[in-house]
Amino acid sequence: MSIRSVHSSLSRSLLSAICAAPLAGCAALDGPPPSSRPLSLSCPDPGPDIVFFDNFEGDTSQWVLISDHPADSDHNWAITSNPSVYAGAGQLSSDPGGPTVATYYSRFDSIPFSLAGRTHARLRLASRHHTSLNSIYQIFVRTLDGSKVSLIGDFGPANPSWPAFDQLDIPIPADFWGEPQVRISLLIQAGPHGGDFGAQVDNVLVSAPANPSCGLAFFDSFESGSLSKWDVHSDPGTPGHRWDLAQAPPSVCATASEVRSDPAGHTTAQHSSRLESQPFSLVGVGSAKLQFYGRWSLAGDDRFQIFIADRDSDQLRSLVGELTGTSADFPANQKVEIDIPAEFIGRPHVSVSFLVLTGSYGPGFGAAVDDVKILTDCHPGY
């Protein structure tokens, strides 16, 4: 097994591959880790603490309505049922009665949650909206006493994926870290030309780790049964040799599913297969790293490459890691971490890609990947 750091523009981006030694099935790499920081003792790592969550499968008891038309139940936030548009039966709709031509103001505030003792926090939700001229759909974070209010989402006439939902991931400003009573506000304000569809949200979640090591900009455990967070690009002439979900063997340090470059098994044909994530945001972060669990076995000069790209620029794409040969103690998994180059920090649409290039040397297993994370602002000692 060899690991070659091939980041051409920044020599400081080196590949370190480590694994939690106490866990069965996790293979350690040859030699010591490249820094003095301790190894992680979880496989996979636990997610951040959840301080607020509502999937709207019950009632709206976790919310408070503030409206200038409180009796207008058709145009105040309420739960509606449409299982065809998003997971679960219920969603929260700003205008459950349908479009209106009236001018109105309708705000839905979450019940207070605590960020006391927390030094990071993020809001995640599924959202779609379609508003008419002079109408507003905004998201705020505020303290219960109103002494701090911050606009964290200000949206145009329609979300990019309309009528599908978009996944929003919004950092909560540092001003609110440590506050004991914090609320999320969803605001619809319809102008004189009507409210149109309004807005609809689902799975509102606020995460705030009590003792954070890192923030989390992207995560996929591949347990959802789909590759909805990824795009697959592959040579059409090699069916069965493109990235796809596969059952993870019990020997690897992973959960039930993983994603594999060659799920059909070995091949001697020349082919390339690339797995590219949906964009994630690195706006407002100071540093970031890619972490995943994986294993690989490559014949000859076959390569397993890792790229970071700015989806808004065809010119900004960096090869940050190249893996060859066979990973240590294959077929066990190991944890791989790669620093994301500084030129991608602060950009709103960044992606990670895994590429397997196979020559005519085969047969080879290819590569398998699980629990892909983009970690941000990791504290010293992580």
Question: How do the helices and strands follow one another from N- to C-terminus?
Answer: EEEEEEEEEEEEEEEEEEEEEEEE
Structural class: mainly beta
Q: How many distinct helices?
A: 0
Identify the overall geometry: elongated
Distance between the termini: 26 Å
What profile does the largest beta sheet have?
A: 7 strands, antiparallel
Low-confidence stretches: 1-48
Helix content: under 10%
Report the strand count.
24
Percent of residues in β-strands: 35-45%
Structural commentary:
Strand 20 (303-310) and strand 21 form a beta hairpin. This protein has strands at 2-4, 15-18, 50-54, 63-67, 78-81, 90-93, 104-110, 122-130, 136-143, 149-155, 166-171, 182-190, 198-207, 215-220, 230-234, 244-247, 257-260, 271-277, 288-297, 303-310, 317-324, 334-339, 350-358, 366-376. Strands 2, 14, 16, 17, 19, 22 and 24 form a seven-stranded antiparallel β-sheet that branches. Helix content is 0%, strand content 42%. By secondary structure, it is mainly beta.
Write a short abstract of this structure.
This protein has 382 residues and is an all-beta fold. Helix content is 0%, strand content 42%.
Primary descriptors:
single chain, 0% helix, mainly beta, 382 residues, 42% strand, elongated, 7-stranded antiparallel β-sheet, disordered N terminus
